[in-house]
Amino acid sequence: MNRDTMIEQLKSHESLWDFIIIGGGATGLGSAVEAAARGYSALLLEQGDFAQGTSSRSTKLIHGGVRYLQQGNISLVLEALHERGLLIKNAPHLVHNQSFIVPNYEWWEGPFYGIGMKLYDMLAGKLGLGPSKWLSKEEVLEHIPTLEPAGLCGGVIYYDGQFDDARLAVNLAQTAVDQGALVINYMKVTDLLKSNNFCCGVIAKDMESAEEYKINARAVINATGVFTDSVRHIDDPDCNEIIAPSQGVHLILDKSFLPGQSAIMVPHTDDGRVLFAVPWRDRIIVGTTDTPIKEISLEPHPLDEEIDFLLTHAARYLTKDPTASDVLSVFAGIRPLVKSMESENTAELSRDHSLIISPSGLISITGGKWTTYRRMAEDTINQAAIIAGLDERACPTKNLRIHGWIKNVNTINSYPSYGSDSFALQKMIEDKPELKQPIHPNLPYTFAEITWAVRHEMACTVEDVLARRTRALILDAKASIESAPATAKIMAKELRRNRKWQKKQIESFTKTAKGYLLY
Prior knowledge:
Blueprint: H1 3-12, E1 17-22, H2 26-37, E2 42-45, E3 61-62, H3 66-70, H4 74-90, E4 96-104, H5 109-124, E5 133-136, H6 137-143, E6 154-162, H7 165-178, E7 182-184, E8 187-195, E9 198-206, E10 212-222, H8 228-235, E11 243-254, E12 263-266, E13 275-280, E14 283-287, E15 291-292, H9 304-317, E16 329-338, E17 354-357, E18 363-366, H10 373-388, H11 422-431, H12 447-456, H13 462-469, H14 472-475, H15 477-495, H16 499-514
Parallel strand pairs: 1-2, 1-10, 2-7, 4-12, 10-18
Antiparallel strand pairs: 3-6, 4-6, 5-6, 8-9, 9-10, 11-14, 11-15, 11-16, 12-13, 13-14, 17-18
Helix pairs in contact: 2-7, 2-10, 12-15, 15-16
């Protein structure tokens, strides 16, 4: 997957595209895979990098949604659990089973949550990941020795899915290309083309070369997440806004705060959200908040009260109380929640996806969550085919293996997140052993991964590599800043860039990464 090749293919494409998809997050990439797998011609355009926004800033969970079960949204839980099962089968190199424990500090919590988790198991059916069960206080502390023991009555253990969101996004882009789609990052859609008031294409600007393109299609899909209304306003300046943006913040702590393999799940916090403390990449993710916001940006910043909220709640449940100086990285993401006339609390707004067709035929898909991205894409392409006047074709993605799929992940000794690509990555290191050098003592990444990201994963900037192709920025923001010069040097060689480019990249990334530090 090479950006220069994609640009050349775009220039040489003479026929009408079936679909132009705006947005390179989970939903847009899923839609590109869905369209291409059905044999339609699809072009995806992303203004920044793949998953640069919300789709790389999740809690890293593929789950049915315990909170939705509490709310009585059984249909959403059923759909999500089904999709969870499909994703574990289709991307086993990135999605795996994770045990969660709900600690009980009141006598009634054991039977209450125990019954709830049995219902969760039942809804998952044959795609379940393991039976839930009640644990004694002693058993809970065996799983989580750093859990606060005072007042602990026991707990309930259950199983859900965990993944690497940005890596899955890259693999979805590769899958779309494998199926025949074209996907281009740093290609911003600046306007929509219309014929007889019908949306028939886009004007897009290459953010790397500044070249402008007019591209025609039978249908245009707006899959821009939190920027959904921005594209809808290009189509119709008077349209009503449908997005109620909500910010979620996560803290990254050292593994010593939660040793072992099990995660903690607290079903109800002060703001009504579920709180997670989850082992991930030899770190601990603590999250999340749900804060209504007014301004939307690609790089949102956490509020002081959000950080205090997470530190306070983590201290309630952990014997080792985290402080701001313990936080290795903090990141914020914005959820594209669909507005509700009945609720002012974003924790209560629906995560169900919404599909909106404008009078001009612009198709907007928004809402939802990572777990249900494939179903969202299926619904979107079903509708888009009708708008485009194309023949109906069956959905093939329920059993479509995602790029990197490998039968036995345990056979991969190095670079397991790359799945089947890990063997080519390893061969590259054998040919050039110096690529095995770590980019930083506190990070689990090597120079080889930087080189691979540029050659095969369309990484254009230092941020692309350190934030999304690897997860260095999230795992340890300070270490990632210290890794930037070496990363820029390797990238410059691959991309044939000069020292001025390196200096600019280092400065840009450092400025961004400082927003992930608390001290």
